[in-house]
Amino acid sequence: MADGVGPSPERLLEDVREALSFLGEVEDASHLRGAVLVVDDDARLADITARGLRRMGFDADSAVALRAMRAGEVLVFDLSLVDALDGPAYQQVHATRPIVVTGATDPASRALAAALGASDYLVKPVELEELAAAITRRMT
Known about the structure:
alpha/beta, elongated
């Protein structure tokens, strides 16, 4: 603007679009509470749980088998699936310090969850608010 001529309207629109794009990213990040993977042998239950968590602001995904974890993703893991894990998958689950959900209340199941490095042990049926609180604790 040293010569008295401002930027072209196209340039101004481009700058505004870029600024709005950055604003959208910030808004998205501020509304999401974190990434969660729900792994359960019951695909329908895993999906319902993930949908409920998404309504609560989490970036939640569901699966019936373990997949590669995203950085910072919290794992909600059905204890009944532990027997299906091979060595590397078991180590992956252990490294995530999963939130274990199960229908089992016996001491052996609790010991299995502890050996898996569980950060929380929740008995089904799990209330979404209780699960969200466990996820939030796990993220901090």
